[in-house]
Each structure stands twice: as structure tokens, then as C-alpha cells.
Amino acid sequence: MPTAKAFLTVEMNMGQMVDDVRLAVNGRRPVEFFGRTGGVIPTPVEVLAQIEDLNERMLKGGE
């Protein structure tokens, strides 16, 4: 985790794991959630877009 600026949880649910990730990170880094329900699988393009968006916000110094 020393080089990570933030974490993105990608889930096929309503975010059951995001709280566990936040607990593990213990407030040291921001944790974002991207999820889909109803069996809809996020595409690689959608996941990449979320990563790029999060990266942009981290570069600007915000969450």
C-alpha cells in the first residue's frame, strides 16, 4: 500500500465488500466503489473509465 493513492472496489453487488476494504485500509487512503447488480458484468472499458476518473481526481488532490 505504500504507493497506492486510492483503492477502487469493483463488485457485482450493492457494495458488500467496500466496507471491508475501508476497514483494511483504515482511513489511510480513499476507497471508492463501482458496482453493478442484476448479473450485469462491468466491462473492462467501464472499469478502466472508473480507474482513470479516480486517478484524475487523485492527481488534482481531491477525493
How would you sum up this structure in a few lines?
By secondary structure, this protein is α+β, with helices and mostly antiparallel strands. It has helices at residues 18-25, 44-59, and strands at residues 7-11, 31-35.
Describe this structure in words.
The protein is α+β, with helices and mostly antiparallel strands. It has one domain. Helix content is 38%, strand content 16%. The chain is built from two helices and two strands. The chain has a two-stranded parallel sheet with strand order 1-2. Strand 1, helix 1 and strand 2 form a beta-alpha-beta unit. The longest helix has 16 residues. The chain is flat. The model has no long low-confidence stretch (mean pLDDT 92).
